């Protein structure tokens, strides 16, 4: 079954983007479930159950919530990034100052502004995720540097040559095959992780976030 990609994209990536948001103080009765990110490869899929072998080597049983959404990633190029684009960039502080990108997600226009800001991320220790609008992009000797803006702030991020750059593409349940790489923002639940969206790799492109 082919899922309608635009609603899946908007709902699914809203959750992916908002999963980076810092927790705000809330009353206990209003507290939302803790968010976790599952990165790994599919062991099996059937019905509402997805078993994943994580990058740490652990087998995790993920329950797919009613109405869950599915999308994939497609390869893009750093030259596709242009002023006005809304991007999500995972990065690490550079020794010489500023940040160096670990990966770049070019959001489709419908996603502009979702999860805007710069937050801690768990791709690597000390990494951050910045969802922001590209103010300018300048080609350098070893790649590109982009200036991104969010909430009136600016941040310069270097994108070295070879940095994974992706965008969003359609996916179907048939893409959830053993060995396919997934990124799943999920909720911690007593019965195990509960997912409302799954991002799956296909055609040799894997979710780099």
Average predicted confidence as pLDDT = 86
Low-confidence stretches: 1-12, 17-29
- The helix content is under 10%
Structural class by helix and strand composition: mainly beta
Q: Could you tell me the number of beta strands?
A: 12
CATH homologous superfamily placement of the largest domain? Copper binding periplasmic protein CusF
Oligomer state of the chains in this structure: single chain
C-alpha geometry: globular
Give the class-level CATH name of the largest domain: Mainly Beta
The CATH topology of the largest domain is given as OB fold (Dihydrolipoamide Acetyltransferase, E2P)
From the alpha carbons, calculate the radius of gyration and give it in angstroms.
Answer: 17 Å
Number of helices: 1
- End-to-end span in angstroms? 26 Å
Task: Summarize this structure as a short list of keywords or feature phrases.
globular; mainly beta; OB fold (Dihydrolipoamide Acetyltransferase, E2P); 1 helix; 12 strands; disordered N terminus; twelve-stranded mixed beta sheet; single chain; 209 residues
